[in-house]
Amino acid sequence: MLHTQTISLKNQRTHMVSDIHGNLKLFKKLLTNLQYSASDTLILNGDVCEKGQDSLGLIRYIMDLHHTHRVYTTLGNNDAILLHLLKENEQLIPYLERQPYSLIHEMLREQNREWKQFSSIKEIAQFCLDHYQAELEWIQQLPHALESEDFIIIHAGIERTNDWRETSLTNAYAFPSFYEHGHDEEKTVIVGHWPISNYLSREKSHMNPIIDFDRRIICLDGGLQVKSIGQLNALTLLDGLFEATYVDECKQIKEIVHSFSDESKQGTINWPNYLVEKQEKQEHFTLCYSAANKTNYWIKNEYLTYQDEQWQCTTDVSASFLTVKQGDHVSILDDQCSGYDLAKKDGYYGWIPKSCT
C-alpha cells in the first residue's frame, strides 16, 4: 500500500511543480516569477534530486521552506535512489560511474571524499548517514502520493486496480508514458516523470503542461536537465482555473523581423524512436517515415545519420515549424544548420527560416 497524504486545496492559490532535478537556481527564479508567498501552497511532485548540479542545496532549501511555508513534496524515482543507497544496493556503483551529477556525489564531495575511496556501497551509506542524517531522513519520510478534494498527485502514475493506493511502488514513481495508459479514477491525476515532448509525436513540439480534463490527467514534466530544450514548469491553481508558467536556461534571444507560419509541418521525434525511412530529400529537410510512430516527418538534414545500415535521427528533434510574428522575441536553440534555426517561443519550439531574424 502506498504511503499517501490527504491535503486540502480549497480557497488557496496552489503552485504545482515537478522534476526540478537539482537545479536550485532555476527553481528560485520560478518562485520569483510566481510571486510565491507564505500564503500559497506549493506542491513538488517528485524528482527533486539528480541530474542537476545542486541537489543538496535544493533539498536544504526545500526543507527550510517546509518549516515556514505550506509545502508538500512527493517521492520521485530519482529521489528514491537515496533509498537504494540506504538499502546498500550494490547496483548503485555503475550508476555513480555514469552519472556525474548525483546527490551522493555532492554529499561526498562536500566532505572532500569520492565514492572510489570506499570499498562498498555499505560504507558509502554509513558515511552519508553519519554526515547527512537530516537530509536522508527527510527523503525517507516523503509520501508517494497526495490526495485532495479533486486531485491525486503522484510522480509517475497509478494502476487500474480496485484501490489506486495499491499501485506498486515502481509504477508510483516510475510509470512510463502514463498519459497514454490512462486510469479509471474520478479524480484528475497529476503527474510528472515523463517529459511532455515524449507525447507529441504527431503534434506541435512543446514542453508546456498537458491539461486533459477528458482523460482526467495533467502532465507537468518540462524535461529540465533531461532534454536540451527542457524547462521547469509550474501550474498555478486558483478558483478552479489553471495558469502555466515556465522558466528555462535559454540565453540567445533574438527579435523576429519577418513573420513566418507553416502549420503543415509538425511532430516530434523522441528517444527511442530514432529509426526512420528516407523518402524524399530536399535542400534543408528530408521527408522520412517513422514505423514506430506510423507518421511522416520533415527532418532537418543535419539531424539524420546513416548507421548500422539504417537511417536514424541523431537525437530528439522537432519536426515542427514554429509560427512567429514580427516583433516576437524567441530563444535560438540551434543556429548551426543550413537555412533554418531551431527556435523556442512560449514553450513551443520548431524551425524558422534564418531570414526571420
Automatic annotation (TrEMBL):
<dbReference type="InterPro" id="IPR029052">
    <property type="entry name" value="Metallo-depent_PP-like"/>
</dbReference>
<feature type="domain" description="Calcineurin-like phosphoesterase">
    <location>
        <begin position="17"/>
        <end position="197"/>
    </location>
</feature>
<dbReference type="Pfam" id="PF00149">
    <property type="entry name" value="Metallophos"/>
</dbReference>
<dbReference type="GO" id="GO:0005737">
    <property type="term" value="C:cytoplasm"/>
</dbReference>
<dbReference type="GO" id="GO:0016791">
    <property type="term" value="F:phosphatase activity"/>
</dbReference>
<protein>
    <recommendedName>
        <fullName>Calcineurin-like phosphoesterase domain-containing protein</fullName>
    </recommendedName>
</protein>
<dbReference type="GO" id="GO:0110154">
    <property type="term" value="P:RNA decapping"/>
</dbReference>
<dbReference type="InterPro" id="IPR050126">
    <property type="entry name" value="Ap4A_hydrolase"/>
</dbReference>
<dbReference type="GO" id="GO:0008803">
    <property type="term" value="F:bis(5'-nucleosyl)-tetraphosphatase (symmetrical) activity"/>
</dbReference>
<dbReference type="InterPro" id="IPR004843">
    <property type="entry name" value="Calcineurin-like_PHP"/>
</dbReference>
